[in-house]
Write the structure tokens for this entry.
Amino acid sequence: MALLMKKSTCINQLGDALVFVLVYVDDILLIGNKSQQVTSIISQLSTTFALKTLVSVHYFLGFETTRRANGIYLSQTKYTIDLLKHTNMLHAKPCPTPINQSNSLHLQDSKPFEHITLYRSIIGALQYLTLSRPDIAFTVKKLNQFLQAPTQNHWQACKKILRYLAGTVGEGIKFTPAQNLSIESFCDSDWANSLDDHKSTSGYCVYLSGNLINWSSRKQKPVACSSTEVEYRALAQAYTEIIWLQSLLKEIGTAIPHQPSFGVTIQELDNWLPTLEKVSNKEVEVRYVPSSEQTADILTKSLSIASFHYLQSKLAVVPSPQHNLRGHIETEQSEQSEIAPRSIEAAQAEEAHE
């Protein structure tokens, strides 16, 4: 039996039986390929701890899973509704995208927003929501850059995200079964798109057998001297993620066929030049992707309505088949809310009092 511990995750392997045990405070999630081994681990844990077994997972740490014959849907419907209730935006007029394409957010772009604590708390809640909603990742990361001194324009952009969520409650990521195991990644950057420091934004998304499993939208630390440099930095970030994923799959005994051995450490990728070398040596295959098909564009810049929805579909962000907005609204579940329901006016009054 092999037992590997990594922070809050335990990997139990006995022969061809593989079980992952994820622990968060008093919540435990077990995933395995052999039901007998999963049952055995539960029995062993029951001898030491008082457990309440819920059988198949439907809700875990704010995430909801729905199983269908064509795949598994992962969403944060209840969390989204709680957030919209908290901000009195549940019945707001929906909008088609989370950010206006013409809205160039930057420091001091309008009058200061007085309720800084309110702004920070909502952006923080939206950060957690991006774990199942990559379609809002770019906008949330952008607004996160202004936590120190938000403006009225930043606040309006924040409310636009909430309006977008009000029209897309119940959407999440769909995972479909696949016979062949493969890794594919899209990466892109927007050169010097920051009006304040001329830094660039990188984004990447990683697919495992056609299923989106990881994504990122972040501002690059150095100022790039050319568009070529900024693209290679974006490639280095995606390359780092693929190396980690390959290492994880190898650790659990799953091999990716026809994948090159990169032979480079994570520390080396702090600089993008090693990635350039790997490309030159054809150890990394880089293919041209037309801008209209570049999935990572949705993680680096604001887009038109048509482009946004097309790329969103490539991320497999779809409505959960079990979602019923009216039923969720009428079923009061605020006692288990991750966010206590509280109106914006109440939060503003509290902050003013402080």
Notes: Residues 260-270, 324-354 have pLDDT under 50 and may be disordered. The first strand starts at residue 2 and ends at 6. The chain has three domains: 2-55, 75-172+318-353, 179-287. The first helix runs from residue 35 to 46.
